[in-house]
Specification:
The chain has seven helices and no strands. The chain is mainly alpha-helical. It has one domain.
């Protein structure tokens, strides 16, 4: 059980590490256009991301899938950029949940590959990596939910206290993330 808590803690700390803010940006633009009343939809989105993330993380850790790390590091900000752009160019009423969940699941696959080298180095030569892998992924989900909670809380404060329209707030955050993720993608383009 002690191993569970070690890997659980590593998982949520890895997500909340400000040096690796690309994951924080992704979760931010994924849920910035929602309100607290949409908690079920947000939970499904984050879970879809975690399922994709966990799948490719497991496949990579078990050496079933091997990828070019340079391309994955480039694709991660591209997924953030695409998600932010979808926030800018769709209306709240025009959301297609199937498209959104599918997109989030696929982007989770890409992000999971980005974590695979990190987790593989953590696991080292452990005989049984299933339990640490599960613990780490549960920690990742927990960290994501902390980000979601903070984004929803900040959004509620801005919308209710400062009387900013929810759509304008989402547009502001998404626009900022478009700029940041575009620069990240340019910086990480594999040559």
């Amino acid at each position: 059980m002690q191993d569970f808590w070690i890997y659980f803690q590593l998982g949520w700390q890895h997500i909340l590490d400000l040096n690796g803010y690309d994951h924080i940006l992704f979760v931010l633009v994924l849920c910035c256009s929602y309100a607290l009343k949409d908690w079920k939809r947000i939970l499904w989105l984050v879970t879809a991301f975690t399922v994709g993330h966990s799948l490719t993380l497991a496949l990579a850790v078990f050496s079933i899938v091997k990828v070019n790390v340079g391309w994955i590091e480039f694709l991660i900000p591209v997924t953030i950029l695409f998600t932010a752009l979808t926030n800018l160019f769709r209306s709240n009423k025009g959301r297609n949940p199937v498209f959104l969940y599918t997109m989030t699941l696929i982007f989770g696959l890409i992000h999971g590959l980005g974590f695979s080298n990190y987790l593989r180095s953590l696991l080292g030569k452990e005989a049984n990596i299933v339990w640490p892998l599960l613990s780490f992924n549960i920690g990742l989900e927990f960290g994501q939910l902390i980000i979601v909670f903070l984004v929803i809380l900040l959004s509620a404060v801005v919308v209710s206290l400062f009387k900013v329209k929810k759509r304008d707030w989402s547009f502001f955050l998404s626009s900022a993330v478009v700029g940041i993720s575009f620069m990240m993608a340019l910086d990480r383009f594999p040559l």
